[in-house]
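Input (structure):
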């Protein structure tokens, strides 16, 4: 949300944000924070076809990148198996955190009980991997680029095994956070 106090018919009120009132933006950024494409939220999105509203937003923002072999990283509002399959058909890899209650999630992943540091994942025939990793809490992640491969990450308390997909997701999310901090 870009803060704005004036009069606009598409001004949004989002109580969870620090700046409650403003213009809601959907943004596609490069890894260094450069804005590739921006969409202003002006009215309720219409669902076209069988794709959900978040899926349509990502597809519309990334239509100039189709067939480029790039990677899109997004949070759990946008992430779904349907979106990942659509992007893979257009040679775009996708990495994103996944809501545990999202329709279409594999039940084996959601219901699996893990101990701290454990990873469990399933991969389909197209190479899309849905995994669950337990740190302080369960983290669900979907990746069209990674497997359940883990890497040792150094922390204060010692080394921890962390999935490569989560490491790359965290690096990618920092670029959009740079934009958010600069606009507050």
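Output (sequence):
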């Amino acid at each position: 949300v870009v803060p704005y106090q004036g009069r606009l018919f598409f001004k949004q009120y989002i109580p969870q944000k620090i700046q409650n009132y403003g213009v809601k933006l959907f943004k596609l950024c490069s890894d260094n924070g450069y804005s590739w494409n921006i969409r202003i939220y002006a009215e309720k999105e219409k669902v076209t076809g069988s794709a959900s509203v978040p899926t349509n937003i990502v597809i519309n923002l990334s239509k100039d990148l189709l067939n480029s072999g790039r990677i899109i990283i997004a949070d759990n509002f946008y992430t779904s198996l349907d979106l990942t399959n659509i992007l893979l058909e257009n040679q775009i890899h996708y990495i994103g955190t996944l809501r545990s209650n999202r329709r279409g999630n594999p039940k084996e992943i959601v219901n699996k009980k893990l101990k701290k540091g454990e990873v469990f994942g399933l991969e389909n025939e197209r190479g899309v991997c849905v995994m669950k990793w337990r740190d302080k809490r369960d983290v669900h992640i979907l990746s069209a680029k990674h497997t359940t491969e883990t890497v040792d990450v150094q922390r204060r308390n010692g080394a921890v095994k962390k999935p490569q997909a989560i490491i790359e997701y965290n690096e990618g999310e920092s670029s959009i956070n740079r934009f958010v901090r600069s606009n507050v």
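Notes: The CA atoms of residues 141 and 166 lie 7 Å apart. The mean pLDDT is 83.
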